[in-house]
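Researcher: I'd like a structural prediction for the single chain below. Treat it as a standalone chain; there are no partners to consider.
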Amino acid sequence: MNNNIYFNRKKTFVLNLWGQYQGREKDVGGCSSSRYRMDMEVRCLLYGKRLAIGLSCQNMIASHTDYRVDAETSSYLFDWSPFRVLNLSVSYRFGKRINMKHNKFGINTERL
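Model: Treating it as a single chain, here is the predicted structure.
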């Protein structure tokens, strides 16, 4: 899942949600439990969309994960908890936009 939600018509205030789910897996070496995670970012564009200020949280909703490996004489359990990361970003775009003409090359044209 990857969604952008715009809160105004100029698209200067954006919420981005990203999520992932992976079901339980079983293979030759062992098995792992199902897991999920969700990331979120809020971004505000200012000064004609040149200045971007963002706040993001990775793994804000994440599941506990384990993986069990079964060998002939023993079994191992790898167990870990999710880490959560909070980021603050500020970026500024200098210069002006360049309008470039794209050349169309392909199978139907003389040049490939």
